[in-house]
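Lecture notes, unit on protein representations.

Consider one protein chain, 318 amino acids long.
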Amino acid sequence: MQTQPSAVELSDHQLTEAVAELHTIRDWVRFCVSCFRGCDVHLGHGTSDPFAEATALVMQTLNLEWSADAEILDARVLPSERQRMADLLRRRVNDRVPLAYLLNLAYFAGLPFYVDERVLVPRSPIAELIHNGFEPWLGQEPQRVLDMCTGSGCIAIACATAFEDALVDATDISLDALSVAAINIEHHDLQERVHLLESDVFSKLPGQRYDLIVSNPPYVDAEDMADLPEEFLREPELGLAAGADGLDICKRILAEAADYLSDDGILVVEVGNSQWALEQTFPDVAFEWVEFENGGQGVFVLTAAACREHQALFESAI
């Protein structure tokens, strides 16, 4: 997909001047905020706050904690560090590369994850559900969890961290994505409890029942794909596009979930802006939509009983 050139870019003169004249951490955070706003940079990969994005760029480049003492903001920055920040800022503003790809770092559910262009940048509101133990829908901690369309592995790893006795299967159709997930599983030392499987939805899964099936599958419809900001076009299209109505993958998950859920299991799926299309497609299904305290929408919960009740209907929609 061809992207349009940025309407406003940073010039070489501006960046050279910044390297020469900006001396403290505070200077660089302020300059980055001004650049993001002045160049109409789209923020949507974890924050909508240009100050937070600027702080992340500067502090991570300097290998400093974001919560460092405020006095450190007046510390002077070495010329080599200034050049490094200028280079990253140029790529963020002029090339519209998401910051997580520039840093190879994103946080999800309070945990750090390695990310690059092979996977989507983690940003799902499902993190809040994991933090809350999927209450009130899960009656007890799950013993078996399936994370479908795992990408970077962030949901699977966060579930394994939250549910210390659970075994987690994490599947994806993309071998590139599974390679990134493997890096993160090793980093979090969860090789014994999080297992990766190459599978197109349920196609290669062994006969197994899960107490929790959770998925953040591709769900962007054709119209929204055509209007995505440049930053999102840096992400793999395989992880975003899901047909005309955004439901190609979700329908397949719904059609088979009943066969893989335990009697008291639940299915949790994010469909984002395709929520309306899902409700129009299945008007007789009582999807339970999660209300998030920290922002986000388009995540539904269905019990195993509801999945069985409507399985024939779901199958007919494929």
